[in-house]
């Protein structure tokens, strides 16, 4: 399990203002391979100070590896990562970066209060403990030992540790995993308040709706490459938002592919599935042109469907 890179005494002065005019994050030609696996494969990305950016991508897309290089936990094989114009480890050491990693280790046999107090002592200019506790909504389980925390409560403690140094950049790897809907809503409300002074946020998520609701910009990774970058509405307009399914008998797949707004059609398990960007117009044409279609259903596309649509034209190997 990766250690928290926020551990270590920060030496920087309070960081109320963005420290430089450089981008908050600059990645140029970033590569990282594990054996024959190209985890990150030539990534270029610039994120301006003050942006809230969601990183989406299917399992193994390279999101965590990218996060690790931005936070200095992993070195790139080739290319460059800078945070506010500094090498990542320097930016972390200077207290500019708060990180919340997926399943980041928490001290065992210690209460939430112990962990907070211990970590608080390591920062030069932290938020007050009271502010951290309030922002992360930890007051009701301060005396709970870390191993007794629920998944969502542990995430709130990790969030508290990420904001403690009062960082200018927050990097969050799937921050709301394990939180129920209400807690998730409260988490984002607290986060929005915290970052309202111009802080930058980069968060990885598997939830398209979360990216849509919380981010100014969405970047989509697949096989270690950037395959889409834009506002939530731009990204959504490029992905199928519905799947129309029906019994496979009495319909012709080739003809169905020609229906309006259909991106892809496939037959599996006795049913035909049409991915469409406009289920209303697809359905109207389907009923009019294919009276033999039966047992029709419309379902929201999963995020996997969205990724399939975006990655559809991506070649396996560009080299
Ligand atoms: N330490 C490692 N050793 C070997 N392979 C690794 C290592 N870390 C990542 N990989 C591989 O690199 C690829 C990218 O992994 P990464 O964890 O960055 O993807 P991800 O987008 O974060 O995935 P997920 O959504 O499942 O967390 C995967 O094929 C993964 O198996």
UniProtKB/TrEMBL annotation:
Residues 1-23 are annotated as: Disordered. Its main location: membrane. InterPro entries: AAA+_ATPase, ABC_transporter-like_ATP-bd, ABC_transporter_ATP-binding, P-loop_NTPase. It is a peripheral membrane protein. GO terms for molecular function: ATP binding. Gene3D superfamilies: P-loop containing nucleotide triphosphate hydrolases (3.40.50.300). Keywords: Antibiotic resistance, ATP-binding, Nucleotide-binding, Transport. It holds the Pfam family ABC_tran. Residues 25-248 form the ABC transporter domain. The lineage of its organism: Bacteria, Bacillati, Actinomycetota, Actinomycetes, Propionibacteriales. This is ABC transporter ATP-binding protein. SMART domains: AAA. It is found in: Cell membrane. It comes from the Bacteria.
